[in-house]
C-alpha cells in the first residue's frame, strides 16, 4: 500500500517542485505560477508526498462568505494538481482527505471550490451548492438606452468600491467577503489589457460600479466585465444603457451573473437582450462539522 505524507512547503526546493507540477497541470508559464505563489503566499500551500517525493499539492485560501447577513469563515481550495506520473495512485484523494482534516481542526465553518470534475471532491464529502455563469450579451440587442444615473471614472483602488461591494454581498447568500487576493485578481491587467472602472451614480450617493477590460480579436472587439455592483433598479438600468451606447464599437460583452442577480431583475417581465452563451461551473460547499461522521 502506498505511503503518503501531507505537509506544508518546507523550503525553496519544495516550492519549486510544486510550481513545476502546477505549471504542467494548468498549462501555464513559470512566470504566471511565480506570480500566483506570491499572491497566495507559500504558507497557504500544501503538498502530498509519496515515498518522500512530492506528488502534488494545492492552496488553502482563507475567506469568509455571507450567509444570512453574517460573515462565516470559509476555506477556498485552489490549484489542486497532481503530477502525471502519480495520477491514479491515490495521491489526490490522500491530499484532499488531509486538507479537509486540517481545515476541520482549525474550526473553519465551510469550504468551497470550483472543480474541473466532481468525482474526487464528492468522495471527501463536498456537494454541489451553486454555479458560476458567464453571459455573452450581444451589444446590439441591449434595448435599454436611457441612463438615469451618471457614470464617472474612478480609481480601482478607491475604498468606495469595497464599501459598495460589501453592501451587495451581504444581501446575497454565498457571496465572498473578498480578501486582497481576490481584489488583486479583479483589477490585474491580463494580456496587457487595462481595466477601466466607473462609479454609477453621484459621488456623494453612489449606487454601484462597473469594472471592465476591452479586447480586440481578428474579427471582433469585445468587452469583458471584470466586476460589477448595482444596488438599485436605477443603477441596473444605467449599467445596461452605458454598454448599449458602445454598440457601434463592440459586438458583445461578457458578464458574470445569473438570472436572479440584480442585473437581471429589471428584465423580469421580458428580456431586452439575448443571452448568447452561458457557461457554468460547479461550486461545492462542505459542512466541516460533519467531517468525521
Explain what you see.
By secondary structure, the protein is of the alpha+beta class. It has eight helices and 13 strands. The chain folds into two domains: 4-125, Gcn5-related N-acetyltransferase (GNAT) (Aminopeptidase, 3-Layer(aba) Sandwich); 133-280, Aminopeptidase (3-Layer(aba) Sandwich). The protein has helices at 12-25, 30-40, 91-106, 119-123, 159-169, 180-187, 233-244, 262-265; strands at 4-8, 45-50, 53-67, 70-82, 110-113, 127-138, 151-153, 176-177, 195-200, 208-216, 221-230, 252-256, 275-287. Helix 1 (12-25) crosses helix 2.
Offer a quick outline of the entry.
The protein has 293 residues and is α+β, with helices and mostly antiparallel strands.
List the helices and strands and how they pair.
Layout: E1 4-8, H1 12-25, H2 30-40, E2 45-50, E3 53-67, E4 70-82, H3 91-106, E5 110-113, H4 119-123, E6 127-138, E7 151-153, H5 159-169, E8 176-177, H6 180-187, E9 195-200, E10 208-216, E11 221-230, H7 233-244, E12 252-256, H8 262-265, E13 275-287
Parallel strand pairs: 4-5, 11-12
Antiparallel strand pairs: 1-2, 2-3, 3-4, 3-8, 5-13, 6-12, 6-13, 7-9, 9-10, 10-11
CATH structural class of the largest domain: Alpha Beta
User: What is the tally of beta strands?
Assistant: 13
Helical coverage, percent range: 25-40%
Order of helices and strands: EHHEEEHEHEEHEHEEEHEHE
CATH-level-4 superfamily name of the largest domain = Gcn5-related N-acetyltransferase (GNAT)
The stretches of 5 or more residues where confidence is low (pLDDT under 50) are 268-284, 286-293
- Structural class assignment: alpha+beta
Overall pLDDT level? 85
Count of domains: 2
Instruction: Report the principal-axis shape.
Output: elongated
**What is the second-level CATH architecture of the largest domain?**
3-Layer(aba) Sandwich
Kindly report how far apart the N and C termini lie.
25 Å
Please count the helical segments.
8
Rg is: 21 Å
CATH topology-level name of the largest domain: Aminopeptidase
Strand content: 35-45%
Report the major sheet. 13 strands, mixed
